[in-house]
């Protein structure tokens, strides 16, 4: 879960930014190491942090599936495995890209 906000809130000089930063931090802690469900839907999504109001990072479905309220309280953290086909495909593509670029690939000792 990584993302870089385009603008960062200034919680020292802006009280609203301080409130938003606190809300964002709380939601990020809720989803750390978890996946998510949207509302009452059964699909389990991977989590990606995305900039929201004021540049605050909030957890969102990694597959970019939208939800009408944009309210992070409609997201439920879960330890269940990912079932969203888009998230699974996206994750497989990312792993394949890492193998192609050598990122995280261990060298095999093939000497006999």
Number of strands: 5
Distance between the termini: 41 Å
Helix content range of the residues, please? 25-40%
Strand fraction: 15-25%
What is the overall pLDDT average?
Answer: 79
Assembly annotation: single chain
Largest sheet: 3 strands, antiparallel
* Unreliable residue stretches: none
**Which overall shape is indicated by the principal axes computed on the Cα atoms?**
extended
- Tally of domains: 1
Q: Please tally the helical runs, counting DSSP H or I stretches of 4 or more residues.
A: 2
How would you write the strand order of the largest sheet?
2-1-5
Class by alpha and beta content? alpha+beta
| SSE sequence, one letter per element | HEEEEEH
Specify Rg, calculated over alpha carbons: 17 Å
What do these coordinates show?
This protein is of the alpha+beta class and 112 residues long. The chain has one domain. It is 30% helix and 18% strand. It is built from 2 helices and 5 strands. The protein has helices at residues 15-31, 85-101, and strands at residues 35-38, 44-45, 47-51, 57-61, 75-78. A 3-stranded antiparallel beta sheet has the order 2-1-5, with no helix packed on it. It is extended, with a radius of gyration of 17 Å.
């Amino acid at each position: 879960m990584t993302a870089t906000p385009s603008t960062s809130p200034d919680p020292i000089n802006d009280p609203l930014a301080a409130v938003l930063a606190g809300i964002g931090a709380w939601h990020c802690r809720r989803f750390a190491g978890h996946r998510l469900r949207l509302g009452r839907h059964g699909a389990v999504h991977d989590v990606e942090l995305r900039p929201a109001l004021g540049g605050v990072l909030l957890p969102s479905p990694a597959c970019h599936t939208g939800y009408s309220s944009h309210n992070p309280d409609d997201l439920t953290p879960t330890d269940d495995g990912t079932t969203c086909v888009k998230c699974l495909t996206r994750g497989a593509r990312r792993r394949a890209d890492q193998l192609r670029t050598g990122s995280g690939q261990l060298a095999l000792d093939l000497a006999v």
